[in-house]
Amino acid sequence: MYSAVITLQGGTAVPYFLDEDNAWQIKISDLESSISEYKQKGIKPKLLVVINPGNPTGQIFSDKTIQEFIKFAHKHNLTIIADEVYQQNIFKKGAEFHSFRKVVTHMPEPYNKVQILSLNSISKGYTGDCGFRGGYVEAVNVDKKVWEELTKIKDVFNLPTIGGIALDLAVNPPKKGREADETVEQFEKEKQDILSSLKRRAEMCTDYLNKMDNLKSNPVDGAMYAFPQIFFGKGALKEAERRQVHPELMYCMEALEKTGVVTVPVSYTHLRAHETPEHLVCRLLLEKKKTK
Known about the structure:
This protein has 292 residues and is an alpha/beta fold. The protein has helices at 2-8, 28-39, 63-75, 100-105, 144-156, 161-171, 181-211, 234-243, 247-259, and strands at 47-51, 79-83, 116-121, 135-140, 215-216, 225-226, 229-230, 264-265, 280-283.
């Protein structure tokens, strides 16, 4: 999505890579290398996009790592877009979601002045999928004129009625003392049932992928995706060359035709994992009983 919008606006996307061998965490030195390479080409980056928990890599960034992102953004005069739509989807035991807004407000000057646009959505989290279309952006340290322009865009793209109701419920959920106890309890039960179901699916997906030949997946710590690495033999590579298709696409099409399981080749997502390019994106959608 981000790369598509950048292309539409005539901009240039500056990729940075996560470390698969370290649970998809970030090395700030890699960020420095990426921005230096493109600055030498005459490109001046304006925004730093961070998806936490990660899509499709599923990592969860620590408080310390987020501070490093913020310091990097300050150094290079970047506004941070913090895509935090999966903040409710935390599966790793003991892990905790840290918002950029919370972290930046506890940092000393000048880092606490970094501009941040924090995104959240009702299409993820405990709604579990993209059925509702709605979300919000929270601006931190953003210039008043920029906020006025964002407000104009919001006025043009209004929420559908159902999405608006769902969004209001998400930011202002039922509370005891205001709504009936039965309402609060039912809301919490349904919410936790969905989040628990997604957690089970994340564990199941990782387990199944790692039992398969020529596939390897890190645990899905958060978000709603698995991002397994796939290893192709010489025969498969030769067959893909004969068909004149990318090996990943060939694998995904055969998986769909033979099993009905939909996966996405990473070559179609504008993503690349550093030095390990062959990956698939798997969405956590299936109920457990349907996968046996």
